[in-house]
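EI: anyone free to look at a 391-residue chain?
SC: sure, send it
EI:
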Amino acid sequence: MIDQLTDEQRRLRDQVREFADEVVAPAAYEYDTRRELPYDIIATMGEMGLFGLPFPEEYGGQGKDYVSLCLAVEQLARADQSIAVTLEAGVGLGAMPIFRRGTEAQKKEWLPALARGEALAGFALTEAGAGSDAGSTRTTARLEDGEWVVDGSKQFITNSGSAITSLVTVTAVTGESRRPDGTVKKELSAIIVPSGTPGFTVGPSYDKVGWHTSDTHPLEFDGVRVPEENLLGERGRGYADFLTYLDEGRVAFAALCTGAAQGCLEEAMRWAHGRHVFGRPIGTNQHIGFTLARMQARVHAARLATYEAAHKIVAGVPFKMDASIAKLVSSEAAMANARDASQIFGGYGFLNENPVARHYRDAKVLEVGEGTTEVQLMIIARELGFAEGVA
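SC: here you go
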């Protein structure tokens, strides 16, 4: 687990921690207030090689492993969840699908810039009536004169409308078949749509509760035409492939949650030592000490679950249930630690300039993004063999 880190991984962890403390944290409040993606920070992350950590050097990557990516995401999330999710989604949902399922030509065209952090990409799955329920997908793509013609809309798509977004991968209905019982099964495929393609419109940024500097938009596709070779992976396997990316992505997302929980703990400990009431530090009060102890226990459990899953990815053994457990435990830890840290700070914890206030706003989406808490429970129950009655 975490004690199995190599010296190289420890150096990476420490390097990113220093960067998060010295560069990301001091700028977090300003960018959060302006609701802007900090391109200067993203560029530096690219120069550090963070966006290319799990990709081979031949595609501009660093040739590291998934544990290394999780270490980087965790350290960034301590300081700013928006920055951390920009990296996590940029790798897991933006670049990884092209690496896993792309043709050699697609990899050579798109991966180098993504791995260097010079470009971002999004994965457009969710719609107003479809997400986990892929069968309700309404976006369509039809072949016409050697081109895919895409029509429909998507929502809540991360890294989809930034100034450096180069593409989005879109799931769309590319055909239908009828089952023996008479019901219709939709054929879902994934198609690469470059930014700026005529008919592809990026809607205004959402007015979100948190993650203010994360780039998130609704998307519209109106007669968008892209070459037939922009099909990503095998036709009809778009959703099945996405589930594979999502299983991996949940582990990096769990690292983000763990980092957020750790960040709340560190801020609360600092305040408990330095804040004096009735002539003594508030940390000397048993209730505060017990609260901090519970926060530490949550972080510890979240980190163990996360890195067990990450090491299984590297080892090439099944990790589906481990990923869901890690995501479930760590997201709940982040939410609980954000609440407790805010309480320890009292009125100061209600000020947006305070990191714990931002963590409190940001943490709620951790129980929703990349599969809700309920979806994780459903997956775990199914993996335990209790599929009946689990919707």
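EI: The mean pLDDT is 94.
SC: 👍
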